[in-house]
Design brief:
- The complex is a heterodimer of chains A (567) and B (89).
- Chain A has 3 domains: 1-233, no CATH class; 236-484, no CATH class; 495-566, no CATH class.
- Helices cover 72% and strands 3% of the residues of chain A.
- Chain A has 20 helices and 3 strands.
- Chain A has a two-stranded antiparallel ribbon with strand order 1-2.
- In chain A, strand 1 and strand 2 form a beta hairpin.
- In chain A, helix 3 packs antiparallel against helix 9 and helix 10 packs antiparallel against helix 11.
- Chain A is elongated.
- The mean pLDDT of chain A is 93.
- Chain B is mainly alpha-helical and 89 residues long.
- Chain B has helices at residues 3-6, 16-39, 58-81; one strand spanning 82-83.
- The longest helix of chain B has 24 residues, at 16-39.
- Chain B is flat and about 60 Å long.
- Classes of the chains: A mainly alpha (567), B mainly alpha (89).
- At the A-B interface, helix 10, helix 14, helix 15, helix 18 and strand 3 of A face helix 2, helix 3 and strand 1 of B.
- Chain A: Its main location: membrane.
- Chain A: It comes from Sneathiella chinensis.
- Chain A: Keywords: Cell membrane, Membrane, Oxidoreductase, Transmembrane, Transmembrane helix.
- Chain A: The chain crosses the membrane at residues 7-25, 31-55, 67-88, 100-133, 145-167, 179-200, 212-234, 240-258, 265-284, 296-315, 336-357, 369-390, 417-441, 461-481, 502-524, 544-565.
- Chain A: InterPro entries: ComplexI-like_HydComp, NADH_UbQ_OxRdtase, ND/Mrp_TM.
Chain lengths: 567, 89
């Protein structure tokens, strides 16, 4: 392979060939590119390439270390699976956007310095918005604009941080940092926006459900996990992240419980899972960071898988709203099967990948004595069992619709099912062979996944949560799903901010109009006064004979003479 | 897809959901058994990191309590948050 070429470039440059192809050749091309990228990454091994001196600053185009390699592997897998899932799409824009987006995310993972990171960071923002706009609805367009504003803001803050960081340290090196200077805070906020920190999170739930069937699968894999990688590289062991992470685990699950749109439910739940990773970064021990890398990878597997299942529902029935679905297991049995497996993975059922990955972070928190944090994470684990693990299969596939089951549809197309099977297989494989899975992680940590105690406690957690869910449904206390939306923090900029802007605008307009009116009246007054005095036939414009003027002047001189003589 | 209307599905039978519920109860009880055994130091031994975990069936109880808390919070905030689907349009 080409020596030192960042694997991301293979996907980005390959995307430029897509418009020249069609049909089978295009399918072959888009599937080959992630495979080639993967091969390039493996053939490079570990190290740095493309080191350039620029105005005394060192730019490193490609840098692969054990931490970035884990993310690189899963990003290539996600890109391949997502492209396989979207083979039926005839829209060239979506294929190009997917490839450039995935390629720039991979490029960012393997960026050896802050400037290279920034460039790829911005390309991910600009390329991914086309996956939202590709829905070609008014709503998707507006959502995409909001998404783009927020993503580009993250990039601008990152660039500002880089400028300050270079001024402080004279280096572009991207490594562990101490939170303290303006530069490092800027980095935290830039990464935090993309990681969907609490209050910076709404772009996820706003845009993902508006993207196309395949677009959401692609979107869910890269941006947020790229941010997790950046945080893990820059801020391991930063205490603040633990507390941010706790809020992040708790806050979105309430919304996930109430949400009717299954894709938005998943977006909220994914946000909560991000919280686990942020906590892991905050703890910052080798075990915790292994947990972060592992859970980020597994989270991509099950989130993509479940977005594929809900996407297939949307593709076949035209909706992903729980209230409009019913008994889909009858007509989409295979999709239902994969959704059930995906749910087992997300609830961290033994023998699935999340059982291994989540326990790393939980154990690391116990080991460091963060008992309350651990309790909050357990709460988050229970919430995801109910919000996704049970809600998606029950409300998406198995429950009968209270009014009338929708008309039967066909199961998902073969290539979609293949993509689901691929991710399912990997999620099970990593769970059955945690040793092999852990050998890919950045640090060498011995951890026994399958102890009797661990299996029993996890089964207790899952089965009692299931029991509680079943009881709540039977007793009719489960919050019934409604065709409605739930206000979140984005209300502040979509409603309050908007009306504030409109009110301010109206106020400025009123004041301005009044001011203009006042001025106009003033000018009009001056004019009419002038007309009164100097107008045609008025005092000041009246003409008199020159003899009268001479008499007046002589009289004036006479008075002056008298006065001057007198004194 | 007329075959779907002809085919009989187990879940459509009367009482099927009751059966599912009974299975869930049974499984939950089975998952609790090792903790009961551990009380008598029989076959199974707990490995705990915190005192909380010494409570029998701690994880099961915690799951139930967490779920209850989630439901209460969700139902409490719902009236304040719910709006019509076209609220932002």
């Amino acid at each position: 392979m080409i020596d030192g070429l960042n694997p991301g470039f293979i996907l980005i440059l390959g995307a430029l060939l897509v418009p020249l192809t069609s049909g089978f050749i295009r399918s072959l091309l888009v599937l080959a590119l992630p495979v080639l990228g993967f091969a390039q990454m493996i053939s490079l091994g570990l190290g740095s390439w493309g080191v350039i001196d620029m105005l005394g600053l060192q730019v490193v185009l490609t840098h692969i270390d054990p931490l970035s390699r884990v993310f690189g592997i899963i990003f290539h897998i996600a890109a391949f699976a997502a492209l396989l899932y979207s083979l039926h799409v005839k829209d060239t824009v979506q294929h190009i956007a997917t490839l450039i987006y995935a390629g720039s995310a991979i490029g960012a993972i393997f960026a050896g310095d802050l400037l290279t990171l920034f460039v790829f960071w911005e390309i991910t923002a600009v390329s991914s918005v086309f996956l939202i706009w590709a829905s070609r609805t008014e709503r998707a367009f507006r959502s995409g604009v909001r998404y783009l504003i927020i993503q580009v803001t993250s990039g601008v803050i990152l660039l500002g941080g880089i400028a300050l960081y270079v001024a402080d340290t004279g280096s572009l090196a991207f490594g562990p940092m101490e939170l303290g200077s303006f530069a490092t805070w800027a980095f935290l906020i830039a990464f935090g926006i993309k990681a969907a920190f609490p209050l910076l999170h709404n772009w996820v739930q706003d845009s993902y459900p508006e993207a196309t069937v395949t677009g959401t699968v692609v979107l869910s894999a890269f941006t947020t996990k790229l941010a997790i990688y950046a945080l893990a590289r820059a801020f391991p062991g930063t205490d603040l992240l633990i507390y941010i992470g706790v809020v992040m685990v708790i806050f979105p699950v309430v919304f996930a419980t109430l949400e009717n749109d299954l894709r938005r439910t998943l977006a909220y739940s994914m946000n909560s899972q991000q919280g686990f990773m942020v906590i892991g970064i905050g703890i910052g021990t080798e075990m915790a960071l292994n947990g972060v890398a592992a859970h980020a990878s597994v989270s991509i597997l099950y989130t993509c898988l479940l977005f594929m299942c809900t996407g297939a529902i949307l593709y076949r029935t035209g909706t992903a709203k729980a209230t409009e679905l019913g008994s889909l297991y009858k007509s989409m049995p295979l999709t239902a099967f994969f959704a059930v497996i995906g749910s087992l993975v997300i609830v961290a059922f033994p023998l699935t990948a999340a059982f291994a990955s989540k326990s790393l972070i939980l154990s690391a928190s116990l080991k460091e004595g963060y008992y309350f944090v651990w309790l909050f994470m357990l709460f988050g684990a229970v919430a995801v069992i109910d919000n996704i693990g049970l809600k998606i299969p029950v409300f998406g596939f198995f429950r009968r619709n209270a009014e009338k089951d929708p008309a039967p549809v066909q199961d998902a197309p073969a290539h979609m099912l293949l993509a689901m099977a691929l991710l399912t297989g990997l999620a099970i494989l990593a769970g059955v062979m945690p040793g092999a899975f852990f050998s890919l992680l950045p640090y060498d940590v011995s951890y026994e996944v399958y102890t009797a105690s661990h299996v029993v406690t996890q089964l207790q957690l899952i089965l009692f949560a299931t029991l509680a869910f079943a009881l709540a449904l039977r007793l009719g206390v489960y919050p019934g799903l409604k065709s409605a939306i739930n206000l979140d923090f984005d209300w502040f900029y979509r409603k309050a901010g908007k009306s504030l802007a409109i009110t301010t605008g109206t106020l400025i307009l009123t004041v301005w109009t009044a001011f203009i009116n006042l001025c106009q009246r003033g000018v009009a007054g001056v004019i009419s006064l002038a007309v009164d005095t100097h107008g045609d036939g008025k005092t000041m414009s009246r003409t008199v004979s020159s003899s009268a003027a001479v008499v007046a002047i002589v009289a004036l001189f006479g008075v002056i003479l008298l006065v001057a003589y007198q004194f | 897809m007329s075959r779907n209307t002809d085919k009989k599905y187990w879940l459509d039978q009367p009482g099927a959901t009751d059966k599912v519920f009974r299975v869930v109860v049974l499984l939950a009880i089975l998952a609790a058994i090792p903790d009961i055994l551990a009380l008598f130091d029989f076959v199974y031994h707990k490995h705990t990191s915190t005192d909380m975990e010494d409570i029998p069936v701690f994880y099961g109880l915690y799951a139930m309590i967490s779920f209850l808390a989630l439901l209460v919070v969700a139902k409490t905030v719902r009236p304040f948050l719910t709006r019509k689907e076209d609220y932002y349009d």
